[in-house]
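Hey, quick one: can you model this chain's 3D structure?
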Amino acid sequence: MVQQTFRTEKDFLGEKEIPVDAYYGVQTMRATENFPITGYRLHSSLIIAMAMVKKAAALANMEVSRLNPRLGNAIVAAAQEIIDGKWHDQFIVDPIQGGAGTSINMNANEVIANRGLELIGEKKGDYFHLSPNTHVNMSQSTNDAFPTAIHIATLDLLEKLLVTMETMHDAFGQKQKSSMTSSRWGARICRMPFRSVSARSSKRIVACWSAISSGSSNPASTCTK
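Sure thing. Here's the predicted structure for all 225 residues.
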């Protein structure tokens, strides 16, 4: 018996073959074909941030009884695996693309959905049981989910930047003390005001999952903090 190397997924444009072991799906594949712009991969901080958004949305939707707990818990578990560093190689869309982040959002939805399907004992691509759109993306819009993830990733990277800036500031101070030839330059640098402000001093991020003019289908109780 020949082992299958592809599975078939379909969308409104038709069918497409997806590598059988891939956690991404048909929307991600179309995005790689439509936007082969830079050849770069998504930053790990953005991948983790997208997973955090999806986890928070699933928790909120379960809390207001919009999402079946069996499916919601699978989404949460799959998202947590991504937060912990797994499956980052399944995020294959180009960071530069049309659609204001729609392809990145769908890449995240599909990876989480397919991993969630495995966790509940179903096959990848069997979206009748757990759908990237209906369940993982429930009560959300790319217009909200993607910018929220950008904010989270930026806060994470700012923490690392502040550590580097503190190290540089200390190094300039040591240079001033050890070198007479650079004392004037070093003194000027060290007199510059430097204040380490935690990027996480404001940890509360609020995202209401709906696009403009679609809020009627999204109750206020699904706003995620």
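One thing worth noting: The longest strand covers residues 6-11.
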